[in-house]
Each structure stands twice: as C-alpha cells, then as structure tokens.
Amino acid sequence: MALTPISLFLFSLLSSIIYGIVLAIHRLRFSPLARFPGSKIAAVSMWYEFYFDVIGRGRYMWKIGEMHERYGLVSPSPFPKPHSTPKLFPSNHNEYPFPWRRVLTQVNGTGPIIRINPYELHINDPEQLLTPHESYYETLYPPTSTRRTTKYPPQMRAFGPPLSTFTTTSHELHRVRRNALSPFFSRASVMELAPTVGVAVTRLVERLDGARRGRVAGKEVVRGGGKGEVVNLGDAFMALTNDVICAYAFGEGGGEGFLERREFAAEWAQMMRDVSSMRHAFGHLGWLYSIVGRIPVAAVTKFLGVKKPTMGALGDLQRVVRGKVEEVKAGLASGEKPAARKTIFYDLLTNSHLSEMDKTDERLQTEAMSVMTGG
Q: Where is the chain membrane-spanning (predicted)?
C-alpha cells in the first residue's frame, strides 16, 4: 500500500518524537557526563543555552553562575572569579586528546564542576587541586609543547570559518600558521612599529585639541561642532588602533584614515562592538556567518539585534580587506620591492613554510579580518 503524504508526515513526526525521547534518556542516564550535577533541561538540549545566549544576548554565562550556586558550589567563592573559568568537553575525549578519563574518575560529581549542556562541563574554580600537585587548569591546559591539543570546534565556530590562525582547530596546522605570524608580535617587531604608533598618537592629540576648539581643518569633528562637546574616546582609540593595524598589516599608507573621519568613524567602532555581540549567534548557528551578507539587512538587524549602519560598515570592512589583500598580491606579482619594514601579509605570501592553500585569497582575507577585528 502506497504511503500518503499524511501518513509520511505522521511517521516522520512519530520517529522524531521517539528519537528525542531516546536521546534525552541517553543524555540523562548513560552519557559520561550524566553523573555531574546541573540543570536537567541544559543536559538534554542545546536549546537551553541557545535561549540565553542568542535570545538573551549572551546571558548564559550569568546563568552558569546561578547553576553553580544551586548545584555545584562547596565553598563561598563568588562567581565569576577574576581568573578564567574554562569549559570542559569530556564527552569528546576520543577526538580531543584531553585526560578526561582521569578527571572523570577523580571527581565524584560534587564541588565546583557542573554540567552546562549535553556535551560540556564548567569549572568554577580552576585553581582547585585535582591532585596534590596539579590543579584542574594545569591538567586540562598544559603547555602545547608537552601535549598535542586540539581546539574545540563548536567554540571556535563563533569566530568564523576555520581559516584564520585564531580559529584553526588542528594542533599542527595552528602551529604552522601561528609561527608565520609570531615574529610580527615579538617585542623587537613591536618596537620597530613605534614611529607609526607615534604618528597616529600625535594625530589623535591634534584631533582632540581640535575637538576642544570646536573644529579641525574647517570640519566638525564632534556632534554639534561646538566647544566643550563630548568626544567618544572609545571610538577615538579604536580609530587609532585600526589605523596602526592597517599600516602594520598592509604597509604605510595602507590605513583607512579612521583618525581623519568625522566622529572618528563611529560607525566602524559600533560595527566592531555589534560583531562581538553577534558571536553568540554564530556559535550556535555556524552557517549564519557565511550567509549574513546575503540575507536582507532588515532580517539580520531584527534577529541579531544590530543596527543597519553596522551591516553597511561590515560590508565596507570586507571590501576594504579584500582590496588590501589583492593590492599586496598584485604588488608581489609585479616584482614590486617591499618597504624597508616588511608587512604581515607580504611576509605571509612569501613564507616558504606556508602551503599554497594558506595563501589563497579567501584565507588571507579571513586572516586579515581576524587581525583587524582582533586589534
């Protein structure tokens, strides 16, 4: 007998319900994390974390604090602590080579460890001793030179595709990419950048002095342009940082002149803040990162809670980064000699330790976005 559309729908619905029930039972009773305390709703589904992170705009970290107070604290230590409070991922111990079995056998399900979703634990006191000689933190995060450590992909997903050095999850590939960038962030390299920083700081001081007077070069620099107006120093310092990073990454003259723009390019500073707030949505919906520029602006602004100018500035940033990378590659192809001080992307393109895959336009553009937004 042929199945009708209604019977197919009912069969699919029943199968989904049965699957959900079996999955919930497994996560609550048979998962390696089942004996750790925590919210049962959080243990059953990621939707609990999704609600507080995406709908609640990043409130899940505070919810974790409440769960520690309810389920896990054995000392009056406040939450959050000034030091880091790492998440743990023992259900994936076969794929991610952490000593989960050791942790699971030495922790009896009470104390500063709670379960915060189907796959992760959270430690409220990473400095508490796991053994007489080691703390939780030392056990779970030893130096990479002593143990191969792979980053947790769901956590990196919040920061974009795994093409930049920061979002690379593979231990070996991350080491190769990091080694290519590390020389630019050594003390000696940063000291060589001092003249560029000095020029930018001098220009910032001139702009602030002009704001005090009301005008700079005949152009209003603050709202209203009158004397005594308030200048947003957060935007001003971000403009300075962006100009320095652009010069360091792409060469002198490669900056976008943020310090010269009206209100220190406040729309770019707001875009940086909004992108940071969007990380929670990207972490749960990794595919959203790749299509955010293709869906209607109204839908993005409503769902992610960002302003329309932010989306315009984000598109501008992507175009700027793409253009800068293309300029560097074109100059290299034409045999143009590098400046006295090498730039980040010139060095990446000429680095013999990087594969051709690491020099593609897409990866370099992603790396450039990471360098600029990370600054």
A: 6-25
Q: Write the secondary structure of 36-80 as one string of H (helix), E (strand) and C (coil).
A: CCECHHHHHCCHHHHHHHHHCCCCHHHHHHHHHHHHHCCCCCCCC
Instruction: Assess contact for 154 and 123: CB atoms under 8 A.
Output: no
- Report the alpha-carbon distance of residue 305 to residue 289 in Å, rounded: 15
Strands (E), the chain: 87-88, 113-115, 121-123
Query: What pairs with residue 182 in β-bridges?
Result: none
Cα–Cα nearest to 149, from 107, 86, 82, 85: 86
Q: How many angstroms separate the CA atoms of 106 and 53, rounded? A: 31
Identity of the amino acid at 292: V
Domains parsed from the chain with CATH numbers: 33-149 (no CATH), 179-374 (1.10.630.10)
